[in-house]
Design goal:
alpha+beta, eight-stranded antiparallel beta sheet, 8 strands, Pleckstrin homology-like domain, family A, member 3, PHLA1/2/3, cytoplasm
Length: 151
């Protein structure tokens, strides 16, 4: 996993875990596969559209839209429905709202679905640890008021 830091528009420092191309199934009537530049960060998955109508190869860096749709891990439930077919990995990202977003990528190397799933688990674990710390600090604060000192 390659990690590098970059500044987002608002000056926030983001850690990029993976940057590359995925295909996302459109939600329209025809459900066509559309190429997206995907940036996996510690916070979620950013999807950039291709500016041109594109040929078969990857779009050049300048061919990607600066606007991005963000799938944040805090709103993501799971990555599932993995299927391997004709050299492609098909998988679904399930959001907390119940919305399912279908993706596919070449089967070469480490599959995107595995990296997204691991990053999601890492995010949820960090969230759980932080919640536990907050509860413990809150309990310690309540305990230090002197209410329980009759023991």
């Amino acid at each position: 996993m390659t990690r590098y830091r970059h500044r987002e528009g608002g000056g926030v420092l983001m850690v990029t875990m993976r940057d590359g191309q995925l295909e996302k199934r459109s939600s329209g009537l025809l459900q066509l596969w559309k190429k997206k530049r995907c940036v996996l960060t510690e916070e979620g998955l950013r999807l950039h559209s291709c500016k041109g109508s594109g040929g078969g190869g990857p779009a050049p860096e300048s061919g990607w839209s600066p606007k991005a749709k963000e799938l944040r891990f805090e709103l993501m439930t799971t990555v599932d429905c993995v299927e391997y077919k004709r050299g492609m990995v098909y998988f679904t990202v399930v959001m907390a709202s119940g919305k399912e977003i279908d993706f596919r990528c070449p089967q070469d190397g480490t599959a995107w679905n595995a990296e997204i799933a691991l990053a999601l688990v890492r995010f949820k674990n960090l969230q759980a640890v932080q919640t536990g710390r907050n509860r413990r600090m809150s309990a310690e604060h309540l305990g230090s008021t002197g209410e329980d000192e009759e023991l």
